Amino acid sequence: MLKRFRVNNFKSLLNFEFAPLGLNLLVGPNNAGKTNLCSALRFLGLSSLTSLEQAVFNSVGEGWNLTNSHVSGVSEVEFEADCTLAYDDQPLEYSYKLKLSVNTEKVAGQQQIEVAEETLAVTGGPFQHTLLLQNRKGQSRLLHEEGFVQHRSGAPYYVETHAPGDATMLSRLYELKDNPRASLFKRYLRSWLYFNLSPDALRSPEVLREYAFLRHDGANLGRAMFALHNEKPRLEKKVIELLKPLEPKLDLFSYSSPDPEHVYMFLEDEKGRRFGMRSMSDGTLRFLAMAYLLVMLEETAVDGGLRPLIVIEEPENGLYVGHLKPMLQRIDPSGSKGQFIFTSHSPYFVDLFDSCIEGIHVIKPGIPSSVLSKPDPAKLSKLVEEMPLGELHFRELLG
Asked: Looking at CB atoms within 10 Å, which of 24, 142, 169, 334 has the fewest?
């Protein structure tokens, strides 16, 4: 579970700290920095999978203007993540720090970035803030964890190696029996998921084999549901139960796969009449994708039992917000089945957090940095007695 995230000199965020709970809501006006925070989280997760250049392109959409435009002469971007993960049923406290060097002299319109410093430390059991890996401009060392556990009376066992500057050492880490704890943290970052669901992508029948799950825009939904139908039909039934308030005629899903690269999904009523994806509203499609995500996370272990961090931007788009209430009520606010971060501008969606006001985070624009504040739960509880939470947000009284 992510306990603390810090980012510095990334877009509008300077020395910006975020401490998420199990269920979180980011609110604030346009251009306040909500999406920048989501992009920073997404970048760090992607950096454990791909090159830095690809992680920047996928999370930000452009390879330039990465650093804070109000601060000149600073060419480093910093990320820190503190989290708790269980290894062999033992809780371990991880601390990961990544410092990137950004060449402000753009080459072909891109800001060139490379790793300046990277460290991963762990505390728990025989480890006391022990470095699992360290990378300084490519000069790297990796702890032989099992050797350290067995012979910890002596000096730690480190293997010296070299890491290319265009990717993190974590992304190049092989999962070996000698470094299971470092590999656990890598798998955890890889399980972070970001979604900004697009109806056009959700309707696409194209099979994207490089994505085992949904893509960030919702593409691959047909394939994901088809796999659920074939492999875990009980979970497909749970998705149908969640969707029925929006689609009362829905009795089951059926599928057609005319070739290996396409899957067409249909809704069927009790009389076997089919309805295509085009007959579903944009909001219903988004709800279907979120229902799929929630059911999968409730019932299955992601990547060996890890509970991921899920970011969903503006889930209420095109939806009657009341339909989202039972879905939110299924999310465990403790984070034991995964952490959720939502962004929203809708006062009606904000109203749904009246039983989880501890998870509300207010982001406001500022120069040189966006500013995050946490409403005091005790004060907010008293205000809610006089005015709905959404109305407080509309009147800018949350923080």
From this structure: 334
Sheet holding 274-276: strands in order across?
Answer: 252-259, 262-268, 274-276
φ, ψ dihedrals at 64, nearest 5°: -130, 170
What token pair was written down for 268?
């069927």
Strand, helix or coil for residue 177: coil
* Structure-block tokens of residue 103: 């060449």
pLDDT digits (tens, 9 = 90+) for 154-166: 667 899 988 889 9
Q: Say what the pTM is.
A: 0.94
Distance from the Cα of residue 346 to its chain's centroid: 21
pLDDT in tens, 190-241: 999 999 999 999 999 999 998 888 999 999 999 999 999 999 999 999 999 9
- Helices 34-47 & 180-190 angle (0-180, nearest 10): 140
CB count in 10 Å sphere of residue 155: 8
Helical axes 282-299 vs 221-231, angle rounded to 10°: 40
Return the closest-CA partner of residue 45 out of 186, 216, 196, 172.
186
Which is it for strands 23-27 and 158-162: parallel, antiparallel or unpaired? unpaired
Q: Please tell me the predicted confidence (pLDDT) of residue 303.
A: 47
Question: How many Å apart are CA 79 and CA 100, to the nearest integer?
Answer: 9
Distances (CA, A) of 131 to 127, 156, 272, 274, 380: 9, 9, 60, 58, 41
Q: Which two tokens stand for residue 60?
A: 């930000």
Adjacent-strand bridge partners of 173: none
- E strands, 150-210, where? 158-162, 193-195
Please name every residue paired with 23 in a beta bridge, in sequence order, or none if there are none: 340
What pLDDT, on the 0 to 100 scale, is given for residue 274?
94
**Residue 302 to residue 299: CA distance in whole angstroms:** 10
Domains delineated in the chain: 2-191+302-394 (3.40.50.300), 205-295 (no CATH)
